[in-house]
Amino acid sequence: MTHIFAHRGSAGTHPENTMASFMEAARVQADGIELDVQLSKDGVVVVIHDETVNRTTDGTGWVGQMTYRQLRKLNANYKFKQYGFCPVPSLQEVLEWAKNTSLLINIELKNNLVPYERLEEQTIELVERYGLASRVIFSSFNHESMATCHKLAPHIETALLYMEKLHRPWSYAHTLQALALHPYHPTVDRSFVEAAHAHQLLIRPFTINKEEQMKTMFQYEVDGIFTDFPEKAKNIREKTLRSF
């Protein structure tokens, strides 16, 4: 069955990458959550997508130039003002909560533009501390970072994010010992999924928000999708399975 990952939590209905969004994903019984991590100025692994706080909070500035205390003062409720004050979470806070759920957790390392020193080591340490290695997937557009993660923690799955069509991406993934490809969904068709599966690779396209896209991906039998609307995706998955 195709797993449904709540992209930045239930980002279509709740403030992205906040506890409110992750809790909503758990409430609607998504199979997993996806979140993004960076480092604060004082070395705390924080959960936020953009390299600056400008879009998703009421502040301005670079994440890596702000302390964790400064980041916590910002309201990350973005366009969902009805949820009141939503602080930027630390990864520790999310994992402390997630350990009591059955959710899979895709942690995207946002170090393709800003080279955060020791982001891999600190993220791995937190995952191990909470005993979540078997439920975590590391992903990144920074494939060097994924190679580093595999070297440091070969028992934790790594996945390669990418935007454009690649020639024989399974061969490339195998050189990095990645177990999954996370492609931009327009690059995915049935023959690609079948070829990747034949090479023992998992396929989880992003970001699938439209009903027809969801139906198509379920029919392709991809291993997972990332969506801002996990409740909608669950309903469509159920209908699609019944139609087979």
TrEMBL record:
<feature type="domain" description="GP-PDE">
    <location>
        <begin position="2"/>
        <end position="237"/>
    </location>
</feature>
<keyword id="KW-0378">Hydrolase</keyword>
<dbReference type="InterPro" id="IPR030395">
    <property type="entry name" value="GP_PDE_dom"/>
</dbReference>
<dbReference type="InterPro" id="IPR017946">
    <property type="entry name" value="PLC-like_Pdiesterase_TIM-brl"/>
</dbReference>
<dbReference type="GO" id="GO:0006629">
    <property type="term" value="P:lipid metabolic process"/>
</dbReference>
<protein>
    <submittedName>
        <fullName>Glycerophosphoryl diester phosphodiesterase</fullName>
        <ecNumber>3.1.4.46</ecNumber>
    </submittedName>
</protein>
<dbReference type="Pfam" id="PF03009">
    <property type="entry name" value="GDPD"/>
</dbReference>
<dbReference type="GO" id="GO:0008889">
    <property type="term" value="F:glycerophosphodiester phosphodiesterase activity"/>
</dbReference>
